[in-house]
Amino acid sequence: MSAPVLSVRNLSIDYVGEDSDFHAVKDVSFDIAKGEFFGLAGESGCGKSTIAFAIARLHQPSALIRRGEILVEGRNVLDLDKKALEKFRWTEVAMVFQSAMNSLNPVLTIEAQFHDVLKTHLGLSREQSRKRAEELLALVDIPAERLKSFPHQCSGGMRQRIVIAICLALNPKLLIMDEPTTALDVVVQREILQRIDVLRKELGFSILFITHDLGLMAQVCDRIGVMLEGELVEVGDARQIHTAPTHPYTKKLWASMPRLRGAQIGGEASL
Amino acid sequence: MKQLLVGLSKNKKAVIGLSILVIILLVAIFAPLLTPYGASARVGRPHQPPSWEHWFGTTRIGRDVWTQMIYGARTSLAVGFGAGLMITVIGTVLGIIAGYMRGKVDEVINFFTNMILVIPNLPLLLVLAAFIGQASPLVIALILGFTSWAWGVRVTRAQTLSVREKDFVKSAEMLGEPKWRIMTFEIFPNLISIVGINFIGSVIFAVITEATLEFLGLGDPNAVSWGIMLYNAQNASALTVGAWWDMLAPCFALALLGLSLALINFAIDEVANPRLRTGSRLNRWKMLVRTGEGRI
Amino acid sequence: MAFLLRRLAFYLAAFIAAATVNFFLPRVMPGDPIQIMFGSANANLTVENLNALRLTFGFIDAPIWQQYLTYLQSIFTGDLGRSIRYFPAPVSEILGRATIWTVGLVGIATILAFIVGTGLGIFAAWKRGTRADTAISLLAIFTTAVPAVVISLLALFIFAYQLRWFPSGYAYNPLLDPALSWTYISSVIYHGTLPMVTMFIVLLGGFAITMRNNMINLLGEDYIVMGRAKGLSENRVMFWYAARNALLPTVSNLAIALGTVVGGSLITEVVFNYPGLGNVLYQAILARDYPVIQGQLLIMTAAMLIANFLVDVSYVLLDPRLKKA
Question: Where does the record place a coiled coil (chain B) (predicted)?
């Protein structure tokens, strides 16, 4: 097995309060291999989004990284200075955010939102950016005319596919998806995840997929980590987490899933 | 409500603002104990500079400026809080009704609100006051109360529109609660910070506007208030003849009262809207970063 | 387009509302309305003159709705009557002359205050929690809380009377004749600077605090985090992702802020004895020159409505979501 794309080592993150701290992430370690689809599951507030934001150093005060390392391709993200950090973002780690409706800048055209990435990182001209943007949109089945549109003129599912296309603009090594489909209906959600999976196999990037929906995760991921109150309590193969969870909390999570849903997933897993 | 008060007691801006306000209030209440002179009595020679007998000097006609100032605080506070209360009550009631009822009622209220907002307030007040003649502080307070509620309606309505979609309102509706009960007991308590901001903002507005109208010569020249002090000082060409104390005393008083109220208002905004709260909460974070106990 | 037309219709209604206030006020006051309106007239006013004035203000022997229509007709034909104090000078002429000074003074001060204030607000929001933010916020609170009249008087006291850097009144040296000469223009600038700076300070804080709060409210939005995640430069995210979006609520607040602009300009002009609308109004109030006072309300309302319309237009230009409507 080659060196992991992402390696989180003994990461602890606190939210600093006026007189005491809230320990959001407690001594978490995990690796994501090249091309791997890795899922991080847990209830809201368990620290999984905090980890996602910390990987691209997007966490805001009062979040504070107390200990640990975040290695992307062997380089500690926490050591990057401001310039190096700007360069690192999006070229190595791109991110899809929770709210599909709200992650595109409402006052810029889709084209401008491709162009600012391509210009900043690759120095492309407007003309070159447009060509590249058209190719990228084609990957997610969106017609090139959409480049002229503003976000509000596109549906929620379309917007999230556009975000994914922007994510792929620089061929990142890791794609982080923080609850990327919660705002979308089930059909669109499924379409998008399938498309991502196909692109992953084509382009070879790894994925860190974050959701509270363990069932959905079991369908798409290679490996799954389960978080409880800031701790990573179990990491394993998707199949093992599904069929033979070892930690009591993972068992409880499965037990809390609606029956009907559980049966469905079982059926699909065998497909 | 309780949360808001606890938050305010921890907010530095609120504490400073409230302290100044309380001091002004105490000075106004105990004015007779703080000066040997009567408010309108001629007690010295004209335009005496500040001295031991007359702390803030005397006016053109020999009144004691300090005495006028502390008695004037009564007027400013009364007009400010009286008119502020009126403005807030009208604005809140209309805003909640418009936002909750929607439909025709909302359209009518909204139309008038917007119309009042685009007619410039001060010139309108000037025309009203000019026809009334020499308006006493009470009359000024009433005019302000009846003409200045539009901004309050706008913000309260906007907030009501979002609160009315909340689950607890929906469930009260399902239970068949009457509309007035929902508006009073479900919606109003959730608007408390916006109402507070509207109230303090209206008090500031009323204090400033009363002083302005009086300064422009529309007030009752026999009243004892900061605006009338400014008016008399202006008429006496106080600055030209070098009697700066005559002009600066009411200026200072108005600035201090305005500042204390604005600090309180800003604090309510910070407490009610956690995103705006930035100060002390992050001090420890900054310290930890500086001492290298964590990384950003 | 439909949006702007709707706004125009609304502004027309608002203007008529202001005119209606003018029409009814003397009529609801106790006493004889004609006596109220023209009681302080000076001896120059002959019977014919007075009759012409009455007609302008709708004081005719007819039912009240006809009086009202007569009055509206006068206004929409640009006839605001004549000044009682400076009879027979038409109100529109007196106000017209003053408007030039006010528009120059207030226009420049407002535009500068909006640009600088918004800039400070952007900076404070971006650096929220730092000393710079605290300093800007406190400065803004201070300038919005202290009445314009106090700020103006203090500026006059310090810079005109104590330091003697600026004159204490007039738009230009009264000994000069208006001409396109450097002497005249420099005199205008010299006299205009202090009132303009005062006006600027009066308005600055409001713009700064509005922009700051609007922008801080947006900073948690996903599209701003995504802008940072994209590795864009700090400036690009600050201006094109955060500030550009925060500008929308700020611009719609601007419409309300214009009321403060009008009020503030009145005060500044009175204090600095500047020959704009504010000063004309002040003189008219002292002389109880009602036609001028009433004309003033209409002119200021019209100015405010025009400014509001400009704000609407810029809002449509700024927000792509409104364009297709």
Answer: none
